[in-house]
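To the structural biology subgroup,

Please find below the input and predicted structure for UDP-N-acetylglucosamine 2-epimerase (Non-hydrolyzing), which we are adding to the shared reference set this quarter. The sequence is reproduced verbatim from the submission form. If anyone notices a discrepancy with their own records, reply to this email rather than editing the shared folder directly, so we keep one authoritative version.
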Amino acid sequence: MKVACVVGARPNFMKIAPIVDAMSRADNLDPFLIHTGQHYDEIMSKVFFEDLGMPRPDVYLGIGSDSHTRQTARIMTDFEKLMEEHKPDYVLVVGDVNSTLAASLVASKLRVRLGHVESGLRSHDRDMPEEINRLVTDAISDDLYTSCADAAPNLRKEGVPEEKIFFVGNVMIDSLVKHRERSRESSILEDLGVDSKGYALVTLHRPSNVDVPETFQGILEALGDLSQEKPVLFPIHPRTRKRIQEFGLESKLNQYPNLRLEEPKGYLDFLRLMDNAALVLTDSGGIQEETTFLSVPCLTLRLNTERPVTVDEGTNTLVGVDPEAIRSAGKKALTGDAKKGTIPELWDGKASERIVDILSRFA
Ligand code: UD1
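Predicted structure (tokenized):
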């Protein structure tokens, strides 16, 4: 069975890598890797292929950045041509980015069987573009592979029949388990001159946080105050860097020498940084899960999460974006009073094998 595996943006790569790897060991599955080019900078894309030991994509569409509609439409147009040319038997999409949505719509219109990995996550916040992508992709998928126990109830509420839902576990944790040892060889702590547990790590890129000047400035001030406790490392997403320039926030950042803006990091360097952080502050979805697995305390700078298992069972706390709340939760965590957690069910490094076992049955 020829399986078109679709990736586009940074958080897709660590999800598809272990699936393609497991698929290449199955006798009856032929993976065909398509990169839409939604993310294209070397540090947002190529580095991840190298770090994760992924094969080069069979096809690179080179779509690039644009408005959501134009980006999605361009992926759809090019992906449809590709489907007609290569005629895959199955399309596998991961996560919740625009590439996930675009490829799903095309597969479903062409009546090619469609599987969605990381299905059933819901923030119940339609202001998030990813929530729309998740809802639509799940509604039109044939097979829904879920990563945690709270996903299936969301799908059932939306009327998804039981036989379409497969609780397989978390493929992103497969990558983490596989590469954790190797990440220990990264020299990133030495390069940045920080000690294990001697710093906080920050990522921010959600439009709701970085596209609104007052919100973004308030968060930066809170992070600046926290950097007086411990250095705060802030590898910066291209979208966030643009906003700093656009809103003239450089002078604000200069007030805090210990709030250190860094280039985005590759997979292995970032994994080592997370593993050794005293605290992680983020608005990313995936990092909430990775810190839970690593038992590193995480403060999520959002009002909601599509990954409640990381709060109920893991090390994650939702703090929102009020600067005072970030300051006080951050100080508490950095002074040793951090949340402990447990690892959710089936986050065991074997989710991809379970997916491939299921796919093999369809072949
Ligand atoms: C996308 C995903 C988001 C995911 C995030 C991870 C959607 C709707 N959003 O958001 O779910 O959490 O990726 O990073 O799919 N840019 C570059 N170089 C790149 C890519 C982007 O400079 O390689 C800049 C461009 O100015 C672009 C902006 O970043 O306009 C935003 O990129 P885009 O892919 O539209 O969304 P992200 O914010 O990255």
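Summary notes: Residues 68-86 form the longest helix (19 residues). The mean pLDDT is 97.

Regards,
Lab coordination
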